[in-house]
Amino acid sequence: MIPPLKIIIADDHPLFRQALVNILTSQFDNVTLFEAETVTALDEILQQHDDADLLLLDLNIPKAHGFNTLVNIRNTYPHIGIVVISGQEDKVTVGKSMSFGAAGFIPKSTSAHQMVKAINSVLAGQQWSPVNSSDLASVTLDSVSSKIASLSPRQHRILMMFADGLLNKQIAYELGLSEATVKAHASAIFLKLGVHTRTQAVIAMSQLYLDKVSLLAEVE
Fold first, then answer.
1. Which pTM does this prediction carry?
2. What distance in Å separates the CA atoms of residue 209 and residue 219, rounded to the nearest whole number?
3. Tens digit of pLDDT for each residue in 97-118?
4. Of 160, 141, 169, 151, nearest to 202 (Cα)?
5. Which stretch of DSSP H or E encloses residue 7?
6. Mean pLDDT score of the chain, rounded to an integer?
7. Sequential DSSP letters for 99-142
8. Which residue intervals define the domain Response regulatory in the entry (predicted)?
9. How distant, in Å, are the alpha carbons of 15, 37, 156, 159, 188 from that of 68?
10. 149-152 long-range contacts, Cβ below 8 Å, gap at least 24?
11. How far is CA 18 from CA 33, 53, 109, in A?
């Protein structure tokens, strides 16, 4: 018996989530869907269903910190295909999504037929984007973004918790670690990013925020 297809939908807009549910249930047989409207809810689903086949990820869900959630999930669950679904569809956003490990990028303006085509392509092991690969070739990651992408899953998770304003003891409690271990991870993060403080690390992390990408797109 063929196991059910597991797809996670991470989007904070109920109407759009429902539209995706309707499309997926009508076009895919034996599909099990999971819905998350925040990064916290998404983390819980991923921990319980790390055998999911596909994640449809909105880059703007609460606490996503732009591309940072994409990077963290890509590093933590490398076997799960990720398709970014976004209202921003400029070349830079698409290119950076693919560079950070997304297997596909679907603009929210895409028709239902094209969405299904894109999802089928990714499930078949192919990449899909609305932009030609030759047009994306000019979109490269800057050195800071590359350094952030190179962090281990645990290090990147802690960096995101820094951005949320959590203290070391709070991070230690959330992750089941000692404060000393959190401090050791912090030191390793600072070394990799070439910074000396939490504030500087969070500023570096902001290079992966979407407003930065939008500014780049406007300049071009």
1. 0.79
2. 16
3. 988 889 999 999 999 999 999 9
4. 160
5. strand 5-10
6. 87
7. HTT-SEEEETTS-HHHHHHHHHHHHTT--B-SS-HHHHTT----
8. 6-123
9. 25, 16, 8, 9, 18
10. 149/71, 149/100, 150/192, 151/75, 151/189, 151/192, 152/75
11. 11, 19, 15
Average confidence (pLDDT) over 11-31: 93
Q: What is d(CA 10, CA 29) in angstroms, rounded to the nearest whole number?
A: 21
Residue 3 has pLDDT above 80, yes or no: no
- Structural domains in the chain, CATH included, are 5-135 (3.40.50.2300), 144-217 (1.10.10.10)
Q: 130 is written with which tokens?
A: 């609305």
**Which residues, 6+ apart, have CB-to-CB distance to 77 below 8 Å?**
46, 50, 52
Sign of the CA dihedral with 112 first, then 45, 73, and 65 last: positive
Residue 93, classified by CB atoms within 10 Å of its CB into exposed (0-12), middle (13-18) or buried (19+), is: buried
| Residue showing tokens 């028709």 | 111
Does the CA dihedral 18-20-26-29 come out positive or negative?
A: negative
Token code pair at residue 34: 């999971």
CA distance 53 to 55: 7
